[in-house]
Amino acid sequence: PIESELYEKLEIGQLPTEQKLHLKKLLNKYRHIFDWYNDTIGHTNLLQHKIIVEENTLPI
Questions:
Q1: Quick one: 7 exposed, middle or buried, by C-beta within 10 A (0-12, 13-18, 19+)?
Q2: Is the pLDDT at 49 greater than 80, yes or no?
Q3: Burial 19-57 (b: 16+ CB within 10 A, else e)
Q4: Of 11, 26, 41, 58, most Cβ neighbours within 10 A?
Q5: On the CB side of 52, how many CA atoms lie within 13 Å of its CA?
Q6: How far are the Cα atoms of 1, 6, 14, 20, 55 from residue 11, in angstroms, in the given order?
Q7: At 28, is the secondary structure helix, strand, or coil?
Q8: Distance between CA atoms of residues 22 and 56, nearest Å
């Protein structure tokens, strides 16, 4: 299971308690696909994309 200190890092926002529990269960179920410690993200040169935005659009 995901360690409790990792849950503390999550900024889930204003969800009802029941939805937070469901979200934590989902994150735990698929924990193997998340980079919880910021040390497993790699890179690839197999894909390139372009994001076209309108002029004067501020970043989100």
A1: middle
A2: yes
A3: eeeeeeeebeeeeeeeeeeeeeeeeeeeeeeeeeeeeee
A4: 26
A5: 0
A6: 19, 11, 9, 11, 31
A7: helix
A8: 39
Structure-block tokens of residue 11? 């900024």
- Residue 52 is which amino acid? I
pLDDT value at residue 1? 64
Give the Cα separation of 20 and 13 in Å (integer).
Answer: 9
The whole-model pTM stands at 0.53
Tokens coding 2: 């995901």
Dmax (CA) of the chain: 45
pLDDT at residue 19 is higher than 90: yes
Q: In this structure, what token pair is assigned to residue 3?
A: 């360690």
